[in-house]
Amino acid sequence: MKIALSLSLAFLGATSTWAAKASSSSVQRSTNLDIVPDKFIVEFTDESNSPPRGSGVTPIDRWACRQKFTVTNHGETPQTYTLSHVPAGTAATVDPNTMFVVDGPVSLLPDFATVTFNTPKFTLSPGQSHDVVATITPTKVDAATFPVYSGFIYVTSGSESVHATYLGVAASLKDKAVIDNINLFFGVQLPLVLDSVGNVQEEPTFVGEDAPTILWRQAFGSPHVRLDSVPSNTNKPKAEKAASGLQRFSLVLDAAETTVAVLRSLNFPSAIFGSLACKLYGNSRYPKDADILVFPTSQDMDAQALKRLIVASAPQYYYLKNARDPAATYRILWFRSSSGRECKVDILVPGTTGMYLPTIPPARIHWTRNLPLAPFPFVLLHKLKAWAENRVAPETYKRVRQATDAADVHRLLEITPHIRELQKNPAWWTDEELFDAHLQMHSVIHVRQYCAEFPERAELWRALGFDVPECATDSTV
């Protein structure tokens, strides 16, 4: 049974728009004067348009918070009391452009709440008490920032002064997104259903340790969160999926063709590899972005310098975006089509650490659709390398890619014309123009790991010249 994840939230207790509280620790007392706070009472200024008290769903401009407290004269003579308000900080706690709270330290805003009193000045005889109602109204700022207001209410009599504090949120907590449902932190859209080793799955068997694990992340607090696993009925019709894939493929092709043209105008040869090259060689899966290996004419020209040149050459199509990792020093190149659709373009150069990327001779480049493709053997072994590295990556967003990488490798192995050419030369993977000694060595290991994971495909690799043991397991590599 395929399953889909359903999340429901229940806010327990009060969910009123203005969350305010006074306690004994927030109240000062003196010899002759007490301020005794009653419970905070949320009342709506516009009674005709307001929902029932405490529902917390009215806009900021329709409500005010009323605080009732009692002033008692414990002195021996009549006293005149004056009420005043001293605002404290107002903090925007949520980034309005995202669903996430603002990283500290949180800066304070000059937009303070206003406070009015039913009787701002009054006189009490000895032993007499008076109820005061303070109406606290926030300034109209962006509710999407969930601004937190605070301040002090002072009661002064002669040289004696005491105060109580207030604190409130001028927004409805029911409007705050609680579950992170974007791909910012993990590189894949959350929430996810994972198997026992961290791979994304849709059909758990519930046999042995194969039970679903939920990967989810809260963007905000909630007293109660419920997760339901339900049958999946969200699959798109095949025709709709195909149309969506073709549209994405058209965008990626546009990004690749435009980027290659810009690079040629700058006299930089290049070659397409990765998922786009797989597709152009005959893979059925539609790629999501373009991977381009560029061959600079100067050793001083690294990938970041190339990206800046591309943006400067065609700013109407390209821009740079910060990497997901805030500690990263590189930026990511994005292509924006004339229709406004966007696609990531990965630029790499020979010598990139851990990539084993050579400078491919022009005669080895295969041209199709005005695009220079890296040789098929190069594309195959680098896709295999991606699978091997992603399956053991500590980052979840990388591990979830291994299933797609494995499927890409399988499809490449079934592209008969190219595979037959490789079978004619069993030592093709030792070609030093395409594979240095490190990649040759690692390819042997990666093939055995792949065959241990998918033993039914071992014969395909043996036909390509690799020595794969009959009972290949991870322990044998």
TrEMBL record:
<dbReference type="GO" id="GO:0016020">
    <property type="term" value="C:membrane"/>
</dbReference>
<dbReference type="InterPro" id="IPR010435">
    <property type="entry name" value="C5a/SBT2-like_Fn3"/>
</dbReference>
<dbReference type="GO" id="GO:0004252">
    <property type="term" value="F:serine-type endopeptidase activity"/>
</dbReference>
<feature type="domain" description="C5a peptidase/Subtilisin-like protease SBT2-like Fn3-like">
    <location>
        <begin position="66"/>
        <end position="161"/>
    </location>
</feature>
<keyword id="KW-0732">Signal</keyword>
<protein>
    <recommendedName>
        <fullName>C5a peptidase/Subtilisin-like protease SBT2-like Fn3-like domain-containing protein</fullName>
    </recommendedName>
</protein>
<dbReference type="InterPro" id="IPR043519">
    <property type="entry name" value="NT_sf"/>
</dbReference>
<comment type="similarity">
    <text>Belongs to the peptidase S8 family.</text>
</comment>
<dbReference type="Pfam" id="PF06280">
    <property type="entry name" value="fn3_5"/>
</dbReference>
<feature type="signal peptide">
    <location>
        <begin position="1"/>
        <end position="19"/>
    </location>
</feature>
